[in-house]
């Protein structure tokens, strides 16, 4: 093994799928990269298979790894999120010196990142929680990177992260998001939006497949076409690929032989929980998490099917509803676009609320910029989002941007029609439908919240505000039902 001279400008700890690809990306882009993995076989394999791609400095102990880094030392941790990350931080803190920078590139929960930064800062080292999106392929060829942590660390790290990030229109898909947990927070919401984006695509597929009776290969063609318009995105592109794929074992459409139980690793759930905590209705994201959970409740689903739950009067297909196939396909496209727009609008609301809660000063324009390339939700649509926040960084909601408002005027009727049809067909569209309810709630002149306040005052004397005068009021429900002002 190479002797540890301080020659590496960056180091990567953890050389599984993400770490090894990230290390190769650093090396391919002219950085001398130190590499270390708990089990040395992975380090040896990386250097053996890809050592010719650039300058690697392999190490078999954390001490040698740290010694091989130029000062201020910069090491990216790419190990399993949770306890493994804490263990590696501890080892690095021990071996590093004041001013060195530890970067956690895993999918950490942002509250862990806030805690870790405090602990690491107390020991005189810098800690940067960086969200990295794009999976294996992004890590190798250019991810979207969302670093938080101290701004001084960004000054040191910026150029090296820019050297490996995806580039769109000459702009690298990386920028300093904000202090402490801001980077991991934003990555969490990014993943939540990704859940919603995948679910709305799934709902569109379900409608075309079981409402319009189309075959997966035909639907693949529809998605290919959609990918050349407003919906142009990585997720639509790969959807067409998946739908066109034939199962090598049986010759059936692959999608038909895949068990319909979707997994999750937690970032969507965290986003939904955080939305609840912040009081931000991220209904599209939450419904997507629930949809995955319901899909995986296989025993309960089997019991429900076997129990023949009444379905009511259903139409067999769109023809029975008198809906033309071409019209339906276009309506579904528009409903998908509308529901996607709501999910993004809600996600940006959550980021704004989180940023305010933690004083992070996250700029939504930065996110729309760095999500245009490298990451899973990359899409043309993000250019529009960036333009919206460029025009008005204080937009109360993304859907209030004039461009998106005018888009919605073209989407709203098809969106309503699709939900009516889905209901008549008995096809579940949790995100399409809940997004429309959210939209109608936002627009509503009056919400039933007035009645809820009345109920709360009735059973719990929780008081209410009036529309016609200031103050807090209560009705003496159990006696003479007189009105009292409780804050007089
Ligand atoms: P994994 O999440 O599968 O983790 C495996 C790595 O963690 C191996 O290098 C393993 O070392 C190391 N490790 C473990 Br497990 N416990 C350790 C410990 N106590 N001390 C030191 N090392 C330990 O790797 P991954 O899929 O490459 O993901 C890395 C990070 O990137 C994760 O946080 C993940 O959530 C995040 N991420 C993944 C993706 C993706 O698409 N996979 C995308 C974006 C972010 P060993 O070889 O010695 O067992």
UniProtKB/TrEMBL annotation:
What are the UniProt keywords, alphabetically? Answer: Gluconate utilization, NADP, Oxidoreductase, Pentose shunt
The chain positions of domain 6-phosphogluconate dehydrogenase C-terminal read 183-478
State which Enzyme Commission number(s) the record gives: 1.1.1.44
* Family matches, as Gene3D superfamilies: 6-Phosphogluconate Dehydrogenase, domain 3, N-(1-d-carboxylethyl)-l-norvaline Dehydrogenase, domain 2, NAD(P)-binding Rossmann-like Domain
Pathway(s): Carbohydrate degradation; pentose phosphate pathway; D-ribulose 5-phosphate from D-glucose 6-phosphate (oxidative stage): step 3/3
Give the matching InterPro entries: 6-PGluconate_DH-like_C_sf, 6PGD_dom2, 6PGDH_C, 6PGDH_Gnd/GntZ, 6PGDH_NADP-bd, 6PGdom_BS, NAD(P)-bd_dom_sf, Pgluconate_DH
Tell me, which GO biological process terms does this entry list? Answer: D-gluconate metabolic process; pentose-phosphate shunt
Q: Where does substrate bind?
A: 107, 133-135, 190-191, 195, 265, 292, 456, 462
Q: Which reaction does it catalyse?
A: 6-phospho-D-gluconate + NADP(+) = D-ribulose 5-phosphate + CO2 + NADPH
What does UniProt list as catalytic?
Answer: 187, 194
GO MF terms listed in the record are: NADP binding; phosphogluconate dehydrogenase (decarboxylating) activity
Is NADP given among the entry's keywords?
A: yes
Enumerate the residues binding NADP(+). 14-19, 37-39, 79-81, 107
Say which family it is in.
Answer: Belongs to the 6-phosphogluconate dehydrogenase family.
Query: What is known about what this protein does?
Result: Catalyzes the oxidative decarboxylation of 6-phosphogluconate to ribulose 5-phosphate and CO(2), with concomitant reduction of NADP to NADPH.
UniProt subunit comment: Homodimer.
Q: What is this protein called?
A: 6-phosphogluconate dehydrogenase, decarboxylating
Q: Which organism is it from?
A: Corynebacterium lizhenjunii
């Amino acid at each position: 093994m190479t002797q540890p001279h301080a020659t590496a400008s960056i180091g990567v700890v953890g050389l599984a799928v993400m770490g090894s690809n990230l290390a190769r990306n650093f090396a391919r882009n002219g950085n001398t990269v130190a590499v270390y993995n708990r089990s040395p076989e992975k380090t040896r394999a990386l250097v053996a298979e890809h050592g010719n791609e650039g300058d690697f400095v392999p190490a078999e102990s954390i001490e040698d790894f740290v010694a091989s880094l130029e000062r201020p030392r910069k090491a990216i941790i790419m190990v399993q999120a949770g306890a493994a990350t804490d263990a590696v931080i501890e080892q690095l803190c021990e071996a590093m010196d004041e001013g060195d920078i530890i970067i956690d590139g895993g999918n950490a929960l942002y509250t862990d990142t806030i805690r870790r930064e405090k602990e690491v800062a107390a020991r005189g080292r810098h800690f940067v929680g960086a969200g990295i999106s794009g999976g294996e392929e992004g890590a190798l060829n250019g991810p979207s990177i969302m670093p938080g942590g101290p701004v001084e660390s960004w000054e040191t790290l910026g150029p090296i992260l820019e050297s490996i990030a995806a580039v769109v229109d000459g702009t690298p898909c990386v920028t300093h998001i904000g202090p402490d947990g801001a980077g991991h927070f934003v990555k969490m919401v990014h993943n939540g939006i990704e859940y919603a984006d995948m679910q709305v695509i799934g709902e569109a597929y379900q409608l075309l497949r079981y409402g319009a009776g189309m075959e997966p290969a035909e639907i693949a063609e529809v998605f290919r076409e959609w990918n050349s318009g407003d919906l142009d995105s990585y997720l639509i592109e790969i959807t067409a690929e998946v739908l066109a794929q034939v199962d090598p074992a049986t010759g059936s459409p692959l999608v038909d032989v895949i068990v319909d139980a979707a997994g999750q690793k937690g970032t969507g759930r965290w986003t939904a929980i955080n939305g609840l905590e912040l009081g931000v209705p991220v209904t599209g994201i939450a419904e997507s998490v629930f949809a995955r959970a319901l899909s995986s409740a296989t025993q309960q689903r089997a019991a429900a099917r076997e129990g023949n739950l009444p379905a009511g009067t259903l139409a067999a297909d769109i023809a029975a509803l008198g809906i033309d196939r071409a019209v339906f396909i276009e309506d579904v496209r528009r409903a998908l676009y509308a529901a996607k727009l709501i999910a993004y609008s809600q996600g940006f609301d959550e980021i704004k609320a989180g940023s305010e809660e933690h004083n992070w000063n996250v700029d939504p324009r930065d996110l729309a910029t760095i999500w245009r390339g490298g990451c899973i939700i990359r899409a043309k649509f993000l250019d529009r989002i960036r333009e919206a926040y460029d025009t008005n960084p204080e937009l109360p909601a993304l859907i209030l941007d004039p461009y998106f408002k005018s888009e919605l005027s073209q989407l709203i009727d098809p969106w309503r029609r699709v939900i009516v049809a889905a209901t008549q067909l008995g096809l579940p569209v949790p995100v399409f439908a809940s997004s429309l309810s959210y939209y109608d709630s936002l627009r509503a002149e009056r919400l039933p919240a007035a009645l809820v306040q009345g109920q709360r005052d009735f059973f719990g004397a929780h008081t209410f505000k009036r529309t016609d005068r200031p103050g807090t009021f209560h009705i003496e429900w159990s006696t003479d039902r007189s009105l009292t002002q409780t804050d007089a």
